[in-house]
Amino acid sequence: MTQAAIELGEYLAANLSQDLLEKQVVKDELAIKVLPSALPRVLAFLRDDSNCLFKQLMDICGVDYPEREKRFEVVYNLLSLKHNQRIRVKIDADEATPVPTAIGLFSSANWWEREAWDMYGILFADHPDLRRLLTDYTFEGHPLRKDFPLTGHVEARYDDEQKRIVYEPVKLVQEFRSFDFLSPWEGMTNLPGDDKAGRS
To answer: Looking at residue 15, which CATH number applies to its domain?
Structure first.
């Protein structure tokens, strides 16, 4: 499989030289990084070229690198049943610039792009229905971003007196504790049961 992935990488480098930023084989699968503006052209080539035939879009996911200027990486996982191969296509994105939608090429991109928007806040240009998919419509923020607070922003609960769901700011009921992170095995000089070891 590694040789097939290497050959595919060389083929794509020859045919997509103006769009391909980098390529590498990781665990027998080819991963390529392309320019965001070239994404529709690259995905169409991978789907339609007889040496590729990646007809199935298995997943679109986001990765958050907050220290980068373009903090998001959008990853497209494609499968070719004809050639029994997978490929991973990556692009870099920021918070403000929309990524081209892949819905015109793969209908399954619809929900994957909605999930990436909901979880990371990645915008997709020309998406026909970009709205939340996994969180509530009134949810604040994007929970898979690394800077999202662990407690969230708002708590939803059912109020029995008002007979409806109410949204309130998160309140922590106790102060954060200070942990010393010392292993109990390192801090103890006399372990339970040691007194029995000296008996015969």
So the answer is: 3.30.460.80
